[in-house]
Amino acid sequence: MILLPDPIPIPQKATWFTSTDESAPELRETAQIPQSGVDPIHLDDEGRNFVSLRFWQMRDESPIPFAHENELLMKAFAAMHPGDHDNPHPDDSGLGDETADDLELEERYRTVVEAVTFHSAEPTASTPIDRCLKALLQFHRAYRMMADRPLSVLTVKRLFPLALVFTRALEDTTVTPLGLYALNGSPPNLGGLVSEIRREVFDQVAGLQKRLDQYDPLARFLESRTDAAYELHGPGSYRDAIIHLGIACEVLFDGLLGMLMWEEGTPVERAAEVFSAPITTRIKNQFHPRLKGTWKLDRGELGAWSVEVAGVRNRVVHAGYLPTMQEALAAEAAADQLRDFVARKLANAGSQYPYTGLTFFGEGDVPHGIPTLNKSARKWVEENRANLSTKGDQHRKWREAVNDDVARRG
Questions:
Q1: How far apart (Å, rounded) are the C-alpha atoms in residues 405 and 126?
Q2: Which of 55, 162, 175, 313 has its CA 20 to 30 A from that of 332?
Q3: Which H or E run contains 48?
Q4: What is the pLDDT of residues 10-23, one digit of tens each?
């Protein structure tokens, strides 16, 4: 029994049945009757496993949405202004009643899915739980396209984190409860403060926002990298994680090359010509003359990016491919390796590109072995400290002009 995060208006006790590719010799020449009164489903003679989903609509008596949240807002306001007696007291029993009456529906439901599969004695490629979860996600994927209102993609991590598991023999009608089973992870944001923000980190937020506005390549990489981490480790949407990792890496390539060209004094028209070419062409032709090293797409960190990130991302975008968790984790690792590769190359070019290096590394101390500003770059920073803010604005305006030129070229 699996509880969905959002109710879906499937008819009460409606049943969906699908066969799998996994062998189950015990089911040879058997027929399945998903529910009473329905014609039996005859399986193939070889005996294949199956998953059957039955949908139960359960009345939901939890606090009414919106009215409950409205009450929380009023409690917070009362705490902020404890002496303002014109405002409702947080313990006022009448708080929110009018809103609740206005919005209350006759009945509210949550959807519980009864997922049934066969536990064969033969070795199988997946566990019964995983087989049921895969079938549920497949069904919901198709259901979203027919729903009357937009629905979030259903992932395992968005489900209620505990499932009730039971078993029965084929010839029996009674079930034997096996207890609660913890699914893969838990839904994001269960209501607590899920991330502690230290004061020194909080104070860096404004500075980080300015870096985003100035087309800082590392900051923009980290933004998409953060989006990918949320999708991968939060809801578990591996397709969205792959897309965000693809964006992160291309932003890193694009932003870094732009900053290097700006620091060289490249005219806007020339830069726009370069950025009008495909990204793989830019990688092959533009980085080695500036940062040295090997920038080939069939080896090392760039090879990993090409296969684990760009290759999978292209399958997702162009073929609607659904990547696995393992592919998403591999892409995450490849993106981080790419960032480290770029940092090492940039650290060795501090005399030619000190401002770009400062943008990437800052001036703080770092552990031994971590790329940082070299001596010549630090000297340049000291000599130009009064103009650093101006240079950031200059780079932003240059980059916006380049982007506009590229857009006009189509």
A1: 52
A2: 162
A3: strand 48-59
A4: 888 888 888 888 88
